[in-house]
């Protein structure tokens, strides 16, 4: 395997799209064609009826992620694409943990666990209990380690969702798409605006 | 009779009526101005073919011999005419046979609408007879695709298909229609063409400040160099381009898909770019101070080794497709937009110049190339015929007015290098995908697209055997296509690489040919074989003057190499003359 360039890091790609059969495949193959692994993928309806929001996490260089973002935005049914480093977003993943109630009640200090890991009990049954927590990867990972000795039965983690810190007017921009002709601000392409630094003249 | 000028008007006059999805599909094609369809029937598309029975007057359906031939013909039609090419195919194998053509059309930005039949909607996913998941198969090779399972979805789907195929950077679209949707009757009143899709921007908005920056760069340039591609042709911006070139006085070179946008003998046309392009354009790419790329995508066959490509130059890139900017070559000034719109803005701002000393550099290299390569290729003194002299003689006879359709390989490079083009949309070739077997069906399509122009297909002895069955299409339709087979009894380009880079280990490049003249005569097509120089010109003349199709097989020297050549992995300025 070739050596990984050192400037690779996690990027959060946010795409607003139409809700269309087959679009997930169209977006996924943009990555697989270039042999890029998708670390996390979340897709769900946005705040606007009929518009979906993809959150995709990849580990890549800025140059690659910029080209990928443009390729996604080129797809007919994609409205808008943004990409951000982890520093530029607020992000969360949610995790569920199923543990045997008798052991957890007997051996672990449940109250301490809940407090320390910001977890809460979603279901408490005679046979098992389900805890839920949200946070960054390390936080949800840590709770696995803690619960493992108490007979962790099942674990699941959601894809990442992220909100961009400087996301002024997203909702407003999206609303403009609902009009027949989008306003110039929506047509405006961020990538071109970001280019000013490359000019030497 | 339906008139193309006001296609929608006619349909609007009709009262709302109940019709089948199949009939509506054909009415949509008429409303979009379609006059010719290339296709092949089959079980899942029978309802559309049944409806076609009643549209024989309005729609010319060309029955091909293989769906791949059908889609290449549609590509040829689209490339020659500038209109959208339309293909019909059935489900399963009919649809999968389109894949090569879709990939070719996507990479060469050719507008197509392919309509495939599909099994009944209730059978989807059951492994029904001739069922294949053509939507997922074609997703990577289409600009857009969509499956219709209800007749009522058809008008919008077809309207979007034509709009997407022809707008912005054109490309192929596939609409898969289940059999029940074709059969189903529904209330249909008028066809509304699509003019807007909220999530789709055909062309980015032009930003004048970038045009201003580009003009400033060009005005201060001492050694500016223009590279143009098919974008000039697709944008119908030939005149705008010519005006820009003539005012700026900048020498301009072309990619093979851009050939013909500026006439071959225009004084500022300095030749072809790339691996087998001209000497000067390749060498001087690495000496120019401002490189102006117009509607081209810096393909690896054009750039050679990227980290040694035009590193000294400031790059201005005009393109309609934002993904092309900075994709391969980092741009100093990007000018996003349709060059039909951006070129006049740029021409307005640039100073009138002529760059005589800089242009002389190109002439010097050209003189060198003529002496080392071109003279021997076009006017050989050896006994055997060369590919180049065939093209040279053809130029003299057609005067550069023919549409030249080429296949892929050595003959393609020779034809693109030496064919003379007076008009745009005259060089039809498979550029990006390099699809052998493209030329014969594409030439058929080109003739249907431009019946007023002579069409000459130039094909190697390898490529002709990949789609030779389309001689049957020529026989049945009587379409007038002149076919030149340049037979060197080898898969010549691979043989050349094996000679130069694999110690002459000629691995499976010897290819036997049938007696092409006899094969042609089996299809009632006249033909002739020529191997003597004395007979070449008269044979070409006979071919061109023949009424109807004609196949001319020219036996050329077996082991000629195409030079100049930029070997793979080398810089454009490391181009070899021998």
Secondary structure: helix percent of chain A: 25-40%
How are the strands ordered across the major sheet of chain B?
3-2-4-5-7-6
Instruction: Output the CATH homologous superfamily of the largest domain in chain A.
Output: ACT domain
CATH fold field value of the largest domain in chain B:
Rossmann fold
Query: What CATH architecture of the largest domain in chain B would you give?
Result: 3-Layer(aba) Sandwich
Q: What is the element layout, followed by pairings?
A:
The complex is a heterodimer of chains A (201) and B (578).
Chain A: E1 9-18, H1 23-32, E2 40-45, E3 51-60, H2 62-74, E4 78-85, E5 89-100, H3 101-107, H4 110-116, E6 120-124, E7 128-135, H5 137-147, E8 154-157, E9 161-164, H6 170-178, H7 184-187, H8 190-193
Antiparallel strand pairs in A: 1-3, 1-4, 2-3, 5-7, 5-8, 5-9, 6-7
Chain B: H1 7-13, E1 17-20, H2 21-31, E2 36-39, H3 46-52, E3 60-63, H4 67-81, E4 85-89, H5 93-96, H6 99-107, E5 112-118, H7 134-138, E6 144-148, H8 154-166, E7 172-178, H9 179-183, E8 185-188, H10 208-220, E9 224-228, H11 231-234, H12 238-248, E10 252-254, E11 269-272, H13 279-285, E12 290-294, H14 300-303, E13 314-319, E14 333-336, H15 339-349, H16 356-378, H17 387-398, E15 403-406, H18 410-418, E16 427-429, H19 439-449, E17 455-460, H20 471-477, E18 482-487, H21 492-501, H22 516-522, E19 526-530, H23 533-545, E20 550-555
Helix pairs in contact in B: 2-3, 2-8, 4-6, 4-19, 10-15, 12-15, 13-16, 17-18, 17-23
């Amino acid at each position: 395997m070739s050596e990984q360039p050192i400037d690779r890091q996690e990027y959060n790609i946010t795409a607003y799209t139409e809700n269309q059969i087959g679009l997930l495949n169209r977006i996924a193959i943009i990555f697989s064609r270039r042999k890029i692994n998708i670390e996390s993928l979340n897709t769900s309806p946005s705040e606007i009826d009929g518009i979906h929001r993809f959150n995709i996490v990849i580990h890549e260089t800025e140059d690659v992620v910029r080209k990928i973002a443009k390729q996604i935005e080129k797809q007919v049914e994609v409205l808008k694409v943004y990409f951000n480093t982890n520093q530029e977003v607020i992000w969360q993943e949610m995790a569920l943990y199923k543990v045997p109630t008798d052991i957890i009640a007997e051996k672990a200090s449940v109250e301490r666990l809940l407090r320390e890991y910001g977890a809460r009990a979603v279901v408490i049954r005679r046979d098992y209990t389900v805890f839920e927590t949200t946070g960054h990867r390390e936080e949800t990972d840590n709770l696995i380690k803690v619960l493992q000795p108490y007979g962790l039965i099942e674990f699941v983690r959601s894809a990442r969702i992220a909100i961009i810190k400087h996301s002024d007017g997203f909702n407003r921009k999206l609303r403009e798409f609902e009009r027949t002709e989008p306003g110039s601000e929506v047509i405006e392409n961020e990538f071109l605006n970001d280019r000013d630094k490359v000019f030497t003249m | 009779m339906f008139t193309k000028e006001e296609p929608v008007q006619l349909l609007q006059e009709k009262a709302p009526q109940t019709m089948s999805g199949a009939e509506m599909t054909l009415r949509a094609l008429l409303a979009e101005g379609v006059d010719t369809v290339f296709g092949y029937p089959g079980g899942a598309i029978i309802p559309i073919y049944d409806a076609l029975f009643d549209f024989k007057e309005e729609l010319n359906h060309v029955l091909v011999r293989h769906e791949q031939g059908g889609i290449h013909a549609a590509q040829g039609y689209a490339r020659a005419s500038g209109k959208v090419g339309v293909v019909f195919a059935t489900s399963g194998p009919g649809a999968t046979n389109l894949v090569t053509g879709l990939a070719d059309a996507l990479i060469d930005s050719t507008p197509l609408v392919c309509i495939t039949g599909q099994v009944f909607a209730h059978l989807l996913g059951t492994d029904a007879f001739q069922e294949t998941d053509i939507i997922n198969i074609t997703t990577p090779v289409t600009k857009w695709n969509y499956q219709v399972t209800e007749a009522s979805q058809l008008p919008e789907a077809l309207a979007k298909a034509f709009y997407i195929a022809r707008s912005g950077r054109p490309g192929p679209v596939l609409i898969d229609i289940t059999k029940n949707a074709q059969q189903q009757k529904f209330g249909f009143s008028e066809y509304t063409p699509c003019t807007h899709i909220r999530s789709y921007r055909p062309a980015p908005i032009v930003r004048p400040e970038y045009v201003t920056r580009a003009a400033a760069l060009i005005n201060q340039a001492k050694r500016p160099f223009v590279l143009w591609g098919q974008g000039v042709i697709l944008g119908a911006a030939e005149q705008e381009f010519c005006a820009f070139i003539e005012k700026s006085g900048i020498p301009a070179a072309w990619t093979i898909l851009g050939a013909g946008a500026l006439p071959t003998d225009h004084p500022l046309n300095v030749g072809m770019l790339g691996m087998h392009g001209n000497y000067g354009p390749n060498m001087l790419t690495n000496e120019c101070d401002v490189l102006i790329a117009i509607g081209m995508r810096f393909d690896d066959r054009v750039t050679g080794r990227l980290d040694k490509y035009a590193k000294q130059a400031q790059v201005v890139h005009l393109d309609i497709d934002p993904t092309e900017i900075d994709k391969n070559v980092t741009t100093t000034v990007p000018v996003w937009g349709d060059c039909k719109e951006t070129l006049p803005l740029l021409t307005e701002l640039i100073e009138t110049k002529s760059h005589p000393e800089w242009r002389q550099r190109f002439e010097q290299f050209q003189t060198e190339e003529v002496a080392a390569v071109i003279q021997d290729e076009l006017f050989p003194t050896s006994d055997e015929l060369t590919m180049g002299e065939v093209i040279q003689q053809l130029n003299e006879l057609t005067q550069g007015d023919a549409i030249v359709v080429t296949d892929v390989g050595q003959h393609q490079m020779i034809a693109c290098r030496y064919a003379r083009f007076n008009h745009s949309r005259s060089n039809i070739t498979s550029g990006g995908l390099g699809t052998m077997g493209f030329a014969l069906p594409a030439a058929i399509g080109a003739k249907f697209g431009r019946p007023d122009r002579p069409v000459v297909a130039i094909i190697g002895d390898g490529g002709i055997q990949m789609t030779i069955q389309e001689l049957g299409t020529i026989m049945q339709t009587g379409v007038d296509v002149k076919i030149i087979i340049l037979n060197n009894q080898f898969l010549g380009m691979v043989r050349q690489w094996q000679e130069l880079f694999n110690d002459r280990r000629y691995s499976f490049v010897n290819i036997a040919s049938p007696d092409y003249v006899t094969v042609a005569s089996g299809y009632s097509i006249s033909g002739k074989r020529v191997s003597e120089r004395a007979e070449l010109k008269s044979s070409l003349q006979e071919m061109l003057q023949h009424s109807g199709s004609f196949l001319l097989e020219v036996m050329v020297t077996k082991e000629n190499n195409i030079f100049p050549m930029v070997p793979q992995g080398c810089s454009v300025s490391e181009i070899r003359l021998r």
